[in-house]
Amino acid sequence: MSRLWAPGAVTTIGSLPGTDPAEAATLLVGELPDLPHLAELPDRGAGADMIGRTAALLVELPVEIAASGWRLTAHSTRDLRRAQDYFAWDLDALEAATTGYHGPLKLQITGPWTLAAQLELPSGHRVVFDHGATRDLAESLAEGLRAHLADVSRRVPGAQLVVQLDEPSLPAVLGGRLPTASGWGTVRSIDIATVRSHLHDVLDVAPEGGRVIHCCATDTPVALLREAGADAIAFDLAAVGSTQNDALGEAVDAGLSLWAGVLPTTDVTAIDARITRATALEPIRQLWNELGFPAAQLAAAVVPTPSCGLAGASTDYVRRVFAVLREAGSELRELA
User: Fold this and answer.
1) Which of 235, 195, 192, 191 is nearest to 213 (CA)?
2) Which 3 state secondary structure label does DSSP give 187?
3) Between these two residues, 85 and 176, which has the higher pLDDT value?
4) What's this model's pTM, rounded to 2 decimal places?
5) CB–CB of 291/248 below 8 Å?
């Protein structure tokens, strides 16, 4: 399988601390030259969060903020316009920071199932409660993603676009663990074929070789993500553990890339001296040895990342994470 990023590339999941999109874009393009991405800055508040910013992409499905979170509504709202403004400012900053850039560029959006699990219908029930509404949401998201990709391609014509679907709620959807609006029960589980179909339909909009699904839960459904058409699976390596080795090995055999989350998402000490190149590389090497693949394939097949987003970290720690990741990527390239 062809990948849009080079062996030894490293990246982060998406979110960063701070509120300045220009500063964040410049930092990402400068510190992650092999695989930069559009910054997410949730510290700005509602509309910059993962649900609000993805809801800003939906076509003909406006949203508003209710007491319990984001909710579908009949008309455009001030909440939606604020989310759209945040997204536009982020894209303006990205465009300015990537002048003359050529290479892979990652965009993150909330996947259809996490979006359906977190967005509410006007009735107060979660969208995932209604099969028809969930289908409509996935179709709207795919259409919005198509327009988003076209916009970024115009802004950054040298970019090879990589799309990351964030699906932290997917295991709860599959396991029927989402609470109902009343709190007295749970939303029934969704059959795996339907889950796979909606994931595939959204992923299919992204360029081939650049389709990533991120899930940092302990029960990440690795096989399902591969079957849905992912080119790469991003996960927290410490959370997944050895119980998923068979599924991860099958994914590598099928040509998928493993984006292994190996660095903590918040400062581990006041000076963050405990994270080093070894912190990133040792769990990756252990996984690779357990899977039994040749060392020469490691740099092409594994992308080191933090275990999840970095919004809760300090700026100094984020810079340290970038430096450690680059060191790890460089050492992996030497093995190739």
Assistant:
1) 235
2) coil
3) 85
4) 0.96
5) yes
